[in-house]
Amino acid sequence: MIPKSHPRYESLMKREKIIDGFKRGIVTYAGLIAHGRGETFDYLIGEKSEEFAIEATKVAVAAIKLSKNPVFSVNGNVVALAIDDVIKVADAFNMKIEINLFYRTGERIRKIVKEFKNRGVNVLGDRPNARILGLDHARALCTKEGIYSADLVLVPLEDGDRTRALRNMGKKVVTIDLNPLSRSARTANITIVDELTRVLKNMMRFVDVSENAAREILSRYNNEKVLKDALKHINQRLSLLATLPQDKW
Ligand code: PTJ
Prior knowledge:
Elements: H1 9-23, H2 29-45, H3 51-66, E1 70-74, H4 76-92, E2 96-99, H5 106-117, E3 130-131, E4 141-142, E5 152-154, H6 160-168, E6 172-176, H7 183-187, E7 190-192, H8 196-205, H9 211-219, H10 223-241
Parallel strand pairs: 1-2, 1-5, 5-6, 6-7
Antiparallel strand pairs: 3-4
Helix pairs in contact: 1-2, 1-4, 3-9, 3-10, 4-5, 4-8
The structure holds ligand PTJ.
The site of ligand PTJ has 25 residues, from helix 2 and helix 4.
């Protein structure tokens, strides 16, 4: 049991969720590594939603609002960390939820479907009837009514290869990734450089954006600038910290 008074309580609780998900067969081995990489970038960013992240989150919300068949693609880490907020966001934005695993096994799919069923939610992905074009192996499996026909896919913590394949199919891709240098971050149309659980909460703050406002927000957006702002932020933050005594870090 981690006491709430622990200075790193929130970070440790997220780690516990990932470990618990791993023990229950939802998170894969590589998911543990992916989480550690995310933690590192979050440390460098400062563990809060910065302006570049808020801006991209607003744009993501605008794009989702204007899309016709938006799909929220979930993997093991996303489910372990944030299943309840995934359900809230999908519900608020009329998004279908589809399980799309990089390390796909029938057993992991069944376990994740059950997590959602236990909360009264039906998800897509357990009976795939289509493939993401240009990808080999089981990670390409998807559904016609979900990812295959989606005009927008929200793919947090995603692999760059699949992000590229989805874009090649003409879809708008929104990703959430703490690493602004990842291929996925650089390939998506909209990259939110922020921590998944913070982003899902922030999305709910912007749920009431009107269609006109959404169009306006989208028309001004430049993803490359957002990625550069994230890099500049990390750079400036570290440079500043390096001038301070260590008890101020
Ligand atoms: O469940 P599966 O089989 O679909 O596998 C999922 C993982 C995450 C293992 C798979 O997609 C993978 O290997 O992903 P990558 O290529 O490691 O990319 C994950 C990215 O997410 C990395 O750039 C991490 O920095 C980032 N990341 C990790 N945790 C978080 C995060 N970004 C935002 N919020 C997090 N909590």
